[in-house]
Automatic annotation (TrEMBL):
One of its GO terms (cellular component) is fungal-type vacuole membrane. The chain crosses the membrane at residues 61-81, 116-136, 143-163, 169-189, 201-224, 236-254, 351-373, 393-413, 420-438, 444-462, 469-489, 509-531. It comes from the Eukaryota. Keywords: Membrane, Transmembrane, Transmembrane helix, Transport. It is a multi-pass membrane protein. This is MFS general substrate transporter. Pfam families: MFS_1. Coiled coil: none annotated.
Amino acid sequence: MSLFERVSAMEEYEPWSREQSPSGRDRKMSFNPVGSWVPEAAQEEPVGAFEVPKTRRIFQVFFAVIYCLFAAGIVFGYAAIKPVLIKEEVYRGYCTKEELERGVRVCFEQEIRLNFMFTLAAVSTNVVALPVGTVLDRYGPRVCGIIGSIFVAVGCLFFAFAWQLPFDGYVPGYLFLALGGPFIFISSFQLSNTFPQYSGLILALLTGAFDTSSAIFLFYRLIYTASGGTFWPKKFFLAYLVVPAFIIIVQLFVMPYNSYKTVGELVTQAEEDTSFDDHASDSQINNPAEVQRLREARRVHRESIVSEITELLGSPDANEQTKNEEKKKNVSGVWGALHGRTAAQQIKSPWFILITLFTVIQMTRINYFVATIRPQYEYLLGDYQSAVEINNFFDFALPFGGVISVPFIGLILDNTSTPFCLALLVAIATIIGVLGVIPQTWAAYANVCLFVIYRPLYYTTVSDYAAKVFGFATFGKVYGLIICLAGLFNFSQSALDAMTHKLFNNNPIPVNVILLGLALLVGITLVGFVWKKSNTIHRENIEEEAEGARETLMPGATQNGVNGYGATDSH
């Protein structure tokens, strides 16, 4: 799920915060973990959408959706490609003689190494968001996209020739595929500013493309099966090189070199004072008529720009968008909780600690389930074929469930409070945990259906929480650290695999119960804390509004013979 999905192009409008931070119009949200303000890091100013032909902008959005669909999150289709790798006997050489004699489908070392390949990729996808933000802010989306396509190409080559290499090429191959995704995906977010009135739709399309990209390995597995195994991984990954080649071509000839201006930057440009019609060089011209002609030309040019910005936004000051965003902020109940604080102060707060613990546990549960769905249900149902059918259903449901849920997630987050959204996350996660230990087919399918809806809701809610609570000035540092820590803790998945196979004799129930208990404990604590703080913020807002109303009345008011300064009016 997109980091930006709940952070709209209207992020610049922060009319109120609990501790005033610098003007929202002077900045945009950044993923740069080493700098707070984008303009200081960027080498060139962003470009206004009105300066680029409409047709070109349409093609930019179209091509971005296409290449995100084919490259942004393909590594999360691991559950679909894992059976292919097992059939191709990847890591089969690590099986013991006893395991081979027993004819086990997947031996212990083979399972651990395959799952580690996915674990490392999942961790890297989260951790790499930090350098991606820095590259994007300093060098622009084109450079970022090209770097991503190169990583994808390298990953394809490693995977295609892994069986010939003198070292393990599968792990670095899958790693590079994972590294390329964020560079390609995150650099596309700024395209929501190509058409500010439709920024939400554009972000939804990009997010949907990311979720659907996990189906690439599903379609490959279907082709592999239909071909009887002749279209083996080497052929697929060599053919897949056309994707990074396409991305490079599009980046060089279609996509923008610099990011597009945000709504706040466009509004600021539209509100420039008319004094800019005058220029210092005018004093050097002796002909008054020539000076007047130049000033008139500047005025016409400025009015033309304002007209084009108005057409983009719907109004020169984007009133409608501002009102909508203000309504969403009021509904959230936590907006501005830590705005204006330094990143260090925010990181030390319970707001950060609790959401980080919750994210660590939930991300571990999600990736553990993706990596082990087939062996889990093979044990729970006691039937390999039933486990295969559930795995196949999951492979279809994962990408399409994410796409279908996107608009509903937006409605939930826009129209309900943050404490409610967190409580919903905890409730669904608990139900998933319970269903995951019931050895029944109906429970397995219900679990998968809930999981594919929960996954995008979880990722989106966490980013939404970070934006509302911590603010945009520190978003890159704070949210990046949350995701980075959660990713690093995903290395514990290898230990969970070992526990399941060795300590619990392939029984996944103990590990799932442990994770369920931890998630429930931390989740209840988080919801309780946020709910209490939300009530406090709401009460303080009412008190501030009442105080503001009194201050507005007192200075010039004269009521019942008493003027605004408390003196009795003698007349």
